[in-house]
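Example 3.2
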Amino acid sequence: MPMKPIETLVEEVKSRIAAACQRAGRNPDDVEIIAVTKTHGAEVVKEAWDAGLRIVGENKVQEAAWKKPASVTGPMWHLIGHLQSNKVRKALELFDFFHSVDTVALADRMNAIAADMGASPHILLEVNVSGEKSKSGMKPKEVEPTVRHIMESCPRLTVEGLMTMAPFSENPEDARPYFRRLRELRDAVETSLGVGLPRLSMGMSGDYEVAVEEGATWVRLGTVLFGERPKVRAGIPSGGLDSYSGEGPTVRVLD
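Structure, written as tokens:
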């Protein structure tokens, strides 16, 4: 069964966000969609832009390195995946916003390289609210001292809020306590340090409505907008390169 046009899907998602906001007593204008184009080609970025979405989310620096120059100009590019310290300089060249700063050491390195480049990156701190060993992110107790350190020692960086991923579950309600914990943690740090942390990046295709009810200002959506991510062949096939390895446009597997 063919997918609906992306314009229709975006409108459906926006309607669900508006309904979630109504349930929570929020303004729908306070929630933005990040179009996650991981493993899709540059044409998907144009589709998202034409459908009215203004933010593109990528997981890998090396994938954005070829995709962004091949894409329509206009969108803001957000790095939502883990940032390796050896890719900070390239990431600062490509991205407007960083969702996944998860250590003081990474913040220090970003600050130093940003000073060298004349950049002023805006960031979120990634928090492992669930405590799952498979997930990156700092412990909740590390957030306040990290924000304080950045305020005192990283003048090039602006912390705008927090990000998390809930454990995978078929039931969106299972994510609610993790999203609520992130919001409560944000509120506590704001009060303790007297700072504003307006951004909460949480919620993906399977649980974004719950995330909005719990205070998300950015929801990271891929599958609900673009369908399942393309399968990719192992290795580098002739005539094309593998998007997920970050080497070039995705080669789809033909059934």
